[in-house]
Automatic annotation (TrEMBL):
It is an enzyme of class 5 (isomerase). Keywords: Isomerase. GO terms for molecular function: 5-deoxy-D-glucuronate isomerase activity. This is 5-deoxy-glucuronate isomerase. Pfam families: KduI. Its EC number is 5.3.1.30.
Amino acid sequence: MSLLAKRQQPDTNGRIQHITPESAGWRFVGFDVYLLKQGQILTLESGDKELCLVLVAGLASVKTRQAEFPNIGKRQSPFERTPPYSVYVPHQDRVEVVADSDLELAVCSAPGQGHLPARLIAPEDVGVEHRGKGRNKRLVHNILPDDKPADSLLVVEVYTDEGDTSSYPSHKHDQEDSPDETYLEETYYHRFQPEQGFAMQRVYTDDRSLDECMAPYNRDVVTVPRGYHPVATIAGYDNYYLNVMAGPVRKWKFTWEKDHAWVNSDDYPANGK
């Protein structure tokens, strides 16, 4: 099974990506992307899932059974590098999205069991941080981190400049009964500026029973069922990706690959060559 899901032509609802636990061969994460025209209406039933709707680009009005969030959105491109508007939708709910402009909408899903209310996640609610140093720097938008209410979902945006690496040093989160790790499935939704760009992403395990290297292009998705998963950008093209994670325990605990953990040390980048 390929770990790379290529962008598809929009279906009648504008959907260009459709990742389910069944199609990915795992248990928790679902991920869809819709490209909606201004005025188009999308209706979704959450069923036994909780949803996080991320406005990657464009404006929308969102309504659930109990709440309304009219006229949300601000950025017209993720490369404006401002935090997005998002909406959390609990399980057993119905949501209607009206595209107030052309809209790129990501729908993140995972099992929902609680009774949290639908809520708006505004840009000021998103934690912004800079990670790394040297050629390993990135900008992070923590949309739905593990210290904010949800049943399963973790959602984050990452920006990596041309020629830099991210999700690096190589790390993994695939152990269910470890004090040092949590089992989290993960998707990467890639965008590039300019749009014809691509990146290199490798997904691999210590024993190399899984070892795949892929070249995601604009609006492709890489699925990470286990193992390490670094991303390297290509000169001339900035990279954005939207990460969705979920597992049996809603905590992000990971282990660095020992060979490359030194990149976190004071020896890098001064003595890294």
